[in-house]
């Protein structure tokens, strides 16, 4: 690994100033994605500096504010799992956090890191889509359905920091992840579903975590069986080392049926 300058801001204002004024700089939160990629030499372009956002007070914590649940971008999965507010207002996010890695990764991994990394298999991302979350940055609020712009690409500007994620209160979202094992597995299919409003959000089945438009239209008509049929046309699964496209298509339909308690096909 080449030499990298380490920057440690004291607060959000300091972080924004440093990030904007340091060329070739990347934020470092828990480091569970970034450090792995830096060591492997796969982070492109390789940064010359990292901005450690882990301890910035404004990026920590889970709280209720303005009718929303707000989760700091640098809050860990363990912090979410331990939060009473998260259990009460975003239990599907807690369920997703529990499936991420093992305790070591849950202690360090953050929501901001999962979002900015933008892996199609990121486990919190369908949950945030199903909740209609809002990504709050140092300069604006980005609706989650406008956040993922392509494979591992986001709407973030090169010097834009994620500060928090806001989730509307009073939503009911069901979550399910299918991997090779019950724990420590990257998703083959990961799904979050809300009946009202109709939201069907899925990861690992396309180049981005997506909302399944045809399935949602059927669900909005209260046609659960129709949603299960339609979802196969919403996704763009590929064959890769973890699974085949055909398997992912079948599992997507099975998981949606299960989450909706829809009757099996005749
Ligand atoms: C063993 C192992 C198991 C894992 N298992 C899972 C799993 O089951 N499910 C899953 O979804 N992921 C998994 N991951 C991936 C990883 O843990 C998550 O994506 C985690 O949420 C990343 O958060 P982080 O804080 O560690 O991000 P970092 O590695 O610090 O950063 C990741 C990216 O986000 C950027 N970034 C971080 N914070 C901000 C911010 N505030 N604003 C702007 N950009 C920012 C960084 O610059 C970098 O590009 C696993 C990783 C490992 C090593």
What do these coordinates show?
This protein has 266 residues and is of the alpha+beta class. The protein has 3 domains: 5-52, Uridine Diphospho-n-acetylenolpyruvylglucosamine Reductase, domain 2, CATH 3.30.43.10; 58-168, Uridine Diphospho-n-acetylenolpyruvylglucosamine Reductase, domain 3 (2-Layer Sandwich); 174-260, CO dehydrogenase flavoprotein, C-terminal domain (Enolase-like, domain 1). It has helices at residues 12-21, 34-40, 77-81, 84-89, 91-99, 103-108, 111-117, 124-130, 213-220, 224-234, 245-260; strands spanning 5-7, 25-28, 49-52, 62-65, 68-72, 134-137, 141-143, 148-150, 153-154, 162-168, 174-178, 189-194, 199-203, 210-211. The protein has a 5-stranded antiparallel beta sheet with strand order 4-5-10-6-7. It has a 4-stranded antiparallel beta sheet with strand order 11-12-13-14, with helices on both faces. Strand 8 (148-150) and strand 9 (153-154) form a beta hairpin. The radius of gyration is 18 Å and the shape is globular. The model has no long low-confidence stretch (mean pLDDT 94). The structure holds flavin-adenine dinucleotide. Flavin-adenine dinucleotide binds at residues 26-34, 36, 53, 73-74, 99-101, 105, 108-110, 112-114, 116-117, 122-123, 161-162, 186. The site of flavin-adenine dinucleotide has 30 residues, from strand 2, helix 2, helix 6 and helix 7.
């Amino acid at each position: 690994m080449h030499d990298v300058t380490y920057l440690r801001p004291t607060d959000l204002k300091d972080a924004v100033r440093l990030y904007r004024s340091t060329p070739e700089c990347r934020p470092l939160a828990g480091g569970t994605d970034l450090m792995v990629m830096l060591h492997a030499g796969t982070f492109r372009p390789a940064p010359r500096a990292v901005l450690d956002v882990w301890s910035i007070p404004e990026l920590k914590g889970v709280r209720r504010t303005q009718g929303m649940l707000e989760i700091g971008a640098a809050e860990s999965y363990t912090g979410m799992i331990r939060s009473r507010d998260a259990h009460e207002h975003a239990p599907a996010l807690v369920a997703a956090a529990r499936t991420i890695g093992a305790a070591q990764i849950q202690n360090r991994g953050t929501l901001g890191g999962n979002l900015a990394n933008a892996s199609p298999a990121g486990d919190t991302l369908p949950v945030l889509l199903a909740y209609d979350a809002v990504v709050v940055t140092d300069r604006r609020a980005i609706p989650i359905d406008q956040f993922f712009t392509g494979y591992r690409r986001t709407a973030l500007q090169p010097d834009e920091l994620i500060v928090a994620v806001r989730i509307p209160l009073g939503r009911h979202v069901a979550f399910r992840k299918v991997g090779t094992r019950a724990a420590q597995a990257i998703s083959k299919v990961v799904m979050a579903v809300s009946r009202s409003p109709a939201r069907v959000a899925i990861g690992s089945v396309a180049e981005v975590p997506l909302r399944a438009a045809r399935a949602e239209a059927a669900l909005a008509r209260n046609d659960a069986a129709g949603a299960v049929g339609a979802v196969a046309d919403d996704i763009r699964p590929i064959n890769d080392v973890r699974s085949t496209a055909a398997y992912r298509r079948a599992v997507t339909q099975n998981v949606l049926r299960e989450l909706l308690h829809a009757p099996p096909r005749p």
